[in-house]
Design a protein that fits this description.
The chain has about 375 residues and is an alpha/beta fold. The chain has 2 domains: about 90 residues, Arc Repressor Mutant, subunit A; about 220 residues, Rossmann fold (3-Layer(aba) Sandwich). Helices cover about 50% and strands about 15% of the residues. The chain has 16 helices and 10 strands. The strands form 2 sheets. Strands 3, 4, 5, 6, 7, 8, 9 and 10 form an 8-stranded mixed sheet that branches. Strands 1-2 form a two-stranded antiparallel ribbon. A hairpin with a 4-residue loop joins strand 9 and strand 10. Helix 10 packs across helix 11 and helix 11 packs parallel to helix 12. The protein is globular, with a radius of gyration of 22 Å.
Amino acid sequence: MASALSKIPPLPLLRALGLFRDGLAALHRRLVPGHIAILELQMTGFLTQAIHAAAQLGIADALVEGPRSPVELARAIEVNEDGLRRLMRLLISFDIFAQKRDGSYALTGMSQALRSDSPVTLRDLFLFFGSEYHRKHWTHLADAVRTGHAVGPALDGMGFFEYAAAHRDIGELFDRAMTSISTLSTEPLLAAYDFGRFGTLVDIGGGEGSLLVEILQRSAMTRGVIFDLPEVVTALPVQLAGLADRLTVDTGSFFESVPKGGDAYILKHIIHDWSDEEAERILRTVRSAMEPAARVLIIEIVLPEHHRPHAGKFIDLEMLVNATGRERTEADFRNLLTRSGFTLTRVVPTAAPDVILEARPAP
């Protein structure tokens, strides 16, 4: 995957393209009648469920070997042919799949990401976000806005992480979904920041270790520690092949203690799951394990101050509905770090929505 670094466009170009795209979309919304513009936005909810259905039915996997006619594809995935044609008609109109001149269906660049064997697969992400469990929670968005609290305790009798631990079908799907979305930012992170300058990296809440494995494969002198709950890291031994001498696993709760001796501590998509009070508790736990020269690397979406569309604004509502956390601005992170005993030293943007916030222990 190292060669993929050269494929990442320069940040100024990405920003210019983003501004151009947002400008065209805003112009369209202003030119059409308001009721038409908002109806078009509402219809995208149907599209997300159509993508979920394609992931659930395994359509992309069935097309890996090449195009198939509607009859062949319907037989392969054991569905009604007419229902399949109607689903594919919508997905093809958004270039998610393609239809050849002979009527057969084929993969596109987007549907490659729905393959279960793709190097960067988002299949599990769509399965989780389109699941009945997740949809049920989002139907109560108004309640979350009304109260300011997640809806899980009222609907499930417990918060999301407790529910995921007790219901491992949801928990494992969530873990795979987060791993899949994490792979999207791996190359942009490695292109933007030199993780190999640290002797020992500790990945707090590192899940299945995808980021740390990539770092160690490219930095022969770096050692790593993956730290997460016992039920999360059970799948790790398979991934440690070839790195067993430099990569170890430790288990526990980051609210209580984390491994000592790290030169840098990575917190990727951890802080946004928690309230300010809980996030401060996590950071203070990490701070107590750090030497003065060590660094903490918080990898999160940083909310912009502008009013254009941004991925963080969607995820912020996900946090409102399903967690105690929130997305934060750079000023929010600076204040949180200061209260937790850190000084923010660098803010490193990447070609992904993620930003790396580097901080050192305050004197």
